[in-house]
Amino acid sequence: MSSFNGFDTVPAAASGKAEPFQLHVPDSEVADFKDLLRLSRIGPETWENSVSTREGGKYFGVTRDWLSSAKTTWLTDFDWRKHESRINSFPNFKIQIEDGEPQQPLSIHFAALFSKKKDAVPVLFMHGWPGCHLEFLPMLDLLRTKYTAETLPFHAVVPSLPGYGLSSGPPLDRDFACADAARVLNKLMVELGFGAGYIAQGGDLGSFLARQLSSTYDECKAYHVNLLRAGPEVDQSNTEGLDEEDLLHLKKAKTWWEMGLGYAIEHSTRPATIGLVLSSNPLALLAWIGEKYLEWSDTDIELEQILELTSYYWFTSSLPRCIWPYRDLFSARYQKSGWPKTDKPLGYSAFCDLAVLPKGWQKHFPNMKFRRDHDKGGHFAALEQPELFLEDVEEFVLNVVGPLP
């Protein structure tokens, strides 16, 4: 008898072999992590690392006090095994996806809740950086509480993107871009038996991949995102027709673009250096990742949650493997030619993110069939507001798109 109440039953139509998986970090690695953390120095106090206000642009990243307090909590109160058990309470799998040379397949990890309903709609949920599949666990928890495997209206598939978490990659013998990741993810859905059609959902990097999947693959029938950027084909200096709320969104986005983009420039221009730096010291990794969860969320994410996400990055050696997208997304190809074009149905949940698409610019997305604006929840919508996030996805998938062929 399965301990997952049938949610781990892979569809009979699957052609690939999805192997059940349980995460267990060896005791020796946990001990080494604690030793490294204990020995990690915290730099001296400076004006920049003492400024905590974000008003007037006076925000330079995490404060020394926050990092010092977080280090103490990480060492004394944080229990990795508790979080590991939570991760393993959901069905996890690994599947080999051939991409390029058959002798070197990518091992793709995913968590999933599979439905036994014949008309269940497959939905692919994709995270971004510095996220991982853990962002969607609160949503999966809501689904398994609300439904049984017999009543679940869709198959929820939550992969670790190539190079992230428990997935392997990217390849060592060639460059890897968003189009490559989309190809791998489409193969994943096809091999799980969803070649007749699925819906892609994503935030951050996942939103770009969702659009790429929609524009490239017939199997992807629609896409829903919680980050939607206007491409270079939109004259973003033209504010005609924008209301006061739209103008506030543009002001917020402009501030982030001017003051908060340093990490992305480093990722895109010196990924080797920053990747090696952040994979050498857990406290450095916490400062780099923790800053984003503090700054990009609408309300404060609990410290324990930030420590869980950072620990997962550390134990899976996600850095430097996971920052490959920035070199692609900041390339001339994206900046000059625009995002992949698609006319398939689009759903958009506008949370209080770094950049919100002004309603006055929706005319550039004639395929938008659903939009809902929220006054709470930030960049990590599925993590911060799982109930609202799930409501939007369910409405778009079940009522707007409807049954797939």
Automatic annotation (TrEMBL):
Family matches, as InterPro entries: AB_hydrolase_fold (IPR029058), Epox_hydrolase-like (IPR000639), Epoxide_hydro_N (IPR010497), Epoxide_hydrolase (IPR016292)
SUPFAM superfamilies reported in the protein's UniProt record: alpha/beta-Hydrolases
Active site (catalytic residues): 204 (nucleophile), 326 (proton donor), 379 (proton acceptor)
Lineage: superkingdom: Eukaryota
UniProt similarity note: Belongs to the peptidase S33 family.
Species, as recorded: Cryphonectria parasitica (strain ATCC 38755 / EP155)
An annotated Gene Ontology molecular function: epoxide hydrolase activity
GO biological process, alphabetically ordered: epoxide metabolic process
Domain Epoxide hydrolase N-terminal: from-to ranges: 19-136
Protein name: Epoxide hydrolase 1
Coiled-coil blocks: none
